[in-house]
Amino acid sequence: MAKHFLPLLVAVAVAAILVTATADTLAPAPTVDPGNSTAKPTAYEMLERYGFPPGILPAGAESYDLGLDGSFQVNFPSDCSFRVSKHYKVRYSSRVAGNIQNGSISGLEGVKVKIVFAWINIREVDLNGGELRMHAGSVSKSFSVDHFSTSPQCN
Length: 155
What we know:
By secondary structure, the chain is an alpha+beta fold.
């Protein structure tokens, strides 16, 4: 039974990480001119600019940094967890980091999915058309981006 739910849990966790990583690393944040009232885009807006749904990142991101090399970091006020179903739990650390390129997030840190009794790190998320493919250990699972239209709330 656990093997059947593992792909779903991994996919949800990877999707969340992908959104976080993508928002921070796909493109450098625009420079804000003090004479211009335009603010820096949110992490969620940056994700959408690169085709990722905002719901792969939980609600509450306070800030993000995006390096020219694609390295990124997203900061939350505290650790965050939420249930994907009654069998799976996803946990984000207060700091999520990784490396993002167009359509791919790798080297993810700070995102885990609980499968049965074990927490497994989600390390990579790939975007291919309308599908998000999440990788946790040797397990990977694809999900429609439509499942991630809204950001989950932390418990």
